[in-house]
Specification:
There is one protein chain. The chain contains 15 helices and 17 strands. It is of the alpha/beta class. It folds into 2 domains: 307 residues, UDP-N-acetylmuramoyl-L-alanine:D-glutamate ligase (3-Layer(aba) Sandwich); 148 residues, Protein-Tyrosine Phosphatase, Chain A. A 9-stranded mixed β-sheet has the order 2-3-1-4-5-6-9-10-11. The chain has a 6-stranded mixed β-sheet with strand order 12-13-17-14-15-16, with helices on both faces. It has a two-stranded antiparallel sheet with strand order 7-8. Helix 4 packs across helix 10 and helix 4 packs across helix 11. The chain is globular. It starts with 14 loop residues before the first helix and ends with a helix.
C-alpha cells in the first residue's frame, strides 16, 4: 500500500528544506567523525531550520508505506522484531533503530536515509513513535500502518491522565491508516470501533492466565457506555477476555491469535496460523510484541515462514532482557518504567528464581525522561518477591531515588538484611559481583536515564570477563603443550 500523503502531492521544497536537510546531514556526519552516535541532535538542527521537514521527507517518498509503532510498553521490542522480519524478507527501509522516538529522532532517521539531493534510499519506513509525538507526526504525514501495543499509566507528570493520552492518539490517526491493534487491551481495541481497515492480534491463553486477578487494571470501565467491564480470563493488567454486560463492546476476535503458548529453555513457543514460532525473550508479555510484528508483516504480504524465521532469529535489543556474561555469572538487563511493565518483569524473575538463586539491582532515577514522580513504585507488586525470597541473596537499590526504593521494599516485606543501598551505579555493580558464589544469575532493572550508563558498565565488565577467559584458555593451551 503506497504512502500517498495528505492531498496526494509532493510539497514544494524551498530553500529552508534544503538548508535543513544539509544541516542535518552535516551534523550527523560530524557526530560520526567524533566516534559518537545519535539522531536527536541532527533532528533538532533540521526542525529548527524547517519545522515542516518531515512533510517534505515523508510525503510521496515511501511507495511501500510508512509504519508507526506506538503504545506504552513494547514499542522498541515490537519495532525491532518487525525490523528483523523485514530484513529477513529482503526489505530496505528507513528505521529509527536507536529508539529516538520523538520528532527530532524520527527526523534524524529520515534524513540519514535520504541522499543529498533529497531522494530516499528506502521504499518503506518503520518508526517507533512516542505516544505524545503521534499527533505531531500525523499532522505532517499519513502513516499507512499504525501498530498500537497497549496503554498503561506512565510518567503522569509528562503525559497526564491515561484517558488523555488514549484520546489524543485515537483522534489523530487518519481514517486511511490501517490499524494493527491489541485485541486483548480494551483501551486499544476501542480504536477499531467504526473503522474498516483493522487487524487485531491477541493471545488465546498463557500458562500465567487466570480467571481471577488482583493486579491493578487501567481499563475497568467500558469506553462506550461506562459500565464496569467483565472478564472471563486475565492475561496481565487489563489484558484478557473482556466484555461489557450492558452494551455490545467486547474483545474483538483476533485475526492473528497465539495458541499453545509455553516457555521452553528461556524461549517462548507458540502457534500462529498453524505454524510454530518461538522468541528468544522470557516473559509472556513479549509474545504480544511478536504478534504485533507478525500482524504487520502479514499485511505487507510477507510469507508466514519468513516472518517466523525473522522472529526466531531475533536477538534482544539494548536493555530489553539483554544478557551480559560476567565472571561471576549472567546479568539480565531490562528497562522498567511503569507498574504494569515492572510487574511483568517481576513475574519473569519469579520463574527464574524457581530454578536458581538470584541477585537484584534496582536503579531508579527521577530525571525528566524517567518521570519526576516516583510514587508509581507503590503500585508495583513487590510483595510477590516474598514467595521467592529464600532464593534471593541480595537486593541492591541504586540511582537518584535509591532511598525510595529501599523504603518500598521494606514495606513489601523483604528482609532488611538482604537490602543494600548504593547510589553510585559503578559501585552498585561491584557490590552485585561481590561474594557471588557459583551458579545463579542476576537481574539489573533500571529506569530510562539509568539504563545507558548501567549498560555501559555491564558491557565493560563483560568484555573484561571475555578477555580474562581468553587469557586463561591461552595459558592452559601453553601448559598443555598446544
Amino acid at each position: 500500500m503506497a504512502q500517498k500523503g495528505k492531498g496526494d502531492f509532493r510539497l514544494k521544497r524551498t530553500w529552508r528544506f534544503w538548508l535543513a536537510l544539509w544541516g542535518c546531514k552535516i551534523t550527523d556526519g560530524v557526530i560520526r567523525l567524533l566516534g559518537k552516535s545519535g539522531t536527536t541532535l541532527p533532528g533538532v538542527v533540521a526542525n529548527r531550520l524547517d519545522p515542516r521537514i518531515i512533510s517534505h521527507l515523508g510525503r510521496g517518498n515511501y511507495p511501500e508505506g510508512i509504519i508507526i509503532v506506538t503504545g506504552t510498553n513494547g514499542k522498541t521490542t515490537t519495532a525491532n522484531l518487525l525490523a528483523n522480519v523485514l530484513k529477513q524478507a529482503g526489505k530496505k527501509f528507513s528505521f529509527n533503530e536507536a529508539g529516538a522516538n520523538l520528532v527530532t529522532g524520527i527526523t534524524g532517521a529520515m534524513a540519514r536515509n535520504t541522499g543529498w539531493l533529497g531522494r530516499t534510499r528506502a521504499k518503506l519506513a518503520l518508526w517507533e513513535v512516542d505516544e505524545a509525538t503521534v499527533p505531531q507526526l500525523c499532522a505532517q504525514i499519513t502513516p499507512t500502518q499504525a501498530i498500537v501495543t497497549n496503554f498503561f499509566r506512565d510518567q503522569l507528570d509528562r503525559y497526564g491522565e491515561l484517558d488523555t493520552t488514549v484520546r489524543l492518539v485515537r483522534e489523530v490517526l487518519p481514517e486511511s491508516t490501517r490499524l494493527i491493534l491489541n485485541a486483548d487491551d480494551p483501551l486499544v481495541a476501542q480504536f477499531g470501533l467504526g473503522r474498516q481497515d483493522v487487524v487485531y492480534f491477541g493471545v488465546e491463553r498463557t500458562p500465567e492466565s487466570s480467571e481471577r486477578s488482583d493486579e491493578t487494571r487501567e481499563a475497568r470501565f467500558c469506553p462506550q457506555c461506562g459500565a464496569e467491564l467483565a472478564y472471563s480470563l486475565f492475561h496481565y493488567g487489563q489484558l484478557g477476555r473482556f466484555s461489557c454486560p450492558v452494551c455490545t463492546y467486547q474483545r474483538p476476535e483476533p485475526q492473528i491469535q497465539a495458541r499453545e503458548v509455553r516457555c521452553e529453555e528461556q524461549r517462548i513457543v507458540f502457534q500462529v496460523d498453524g505454524q510454530e514460532g518461538s522468541l528468544a525473550l522470557p516473559g509472556y508479555y513479549n509474545l504480544y510484541n511478536a504478534l504485533a510484528a507478525y500482524s504487520s508483516a502479514k499485511t505487507l504480504g510477507i510469507a508466514s515462514g519468513t516472518i517466523m524465521e525473522g522472529l526466531r532469529g531475533f536477538a534482544p535489543q539494548a536493555g530489553r532482557m539483554e544478557a551480559f556474561a560476567l565472571r561471576q555469572g549472567r546479568v539480565i538487563l531490562t528497562l522498567v518504567k511503569n507498574p504494569a511493565g515492572f510487574n511483568q518483569v517481576i513475574r519473569t524473575v519469579l520463574g527464574a528464581a524457581s530454578r536458581q538463586p538470584l541477585r537484584l539491582l534496582l536503579a531508579i532515577n527521577d530525571q525528566a525522561a524517567d518521570g519526576r514522580d516516583v510514587s508509581w513504585l507503590w503500585d508495583v507488586d513487590f510483595e510477590l518477591l516474598q514467595a521467592i525470597e529464600e532464593n534471593i541473596s541480595l537486593v541492591i537499590c541504586a540511582g537518584l531515588r535509591a532511598e525510595d526504593m529501599v523504603v518500598r521494599l521494606k514495606y513489601a516485606g523483604i528482609t532488611e538484611e538482604k537490602i543494600r543501598l548504593e547510589d553510585d551505579l559503578a559501585k552498585a555493580v561491584a557490590l552485585l559481583q561481590k561474594d557471588w558464589g557459583s551458579g545463579g544469575q542476576a537481574y539489573a532493572l533500571p529506569t530510562y536515564t539509568a539504563l545507558r550508563p548501567l549498560r555501559d558498565i555491564l558491557a565493560a565488565k563483560s568484555r573484561q570477563a571475555g578477555a580474562g577467559s581468553g587469557r586463561q584458555e591461552t595459558r592452559k593451551s601453553k601448559e598443555d603443550g598446544v
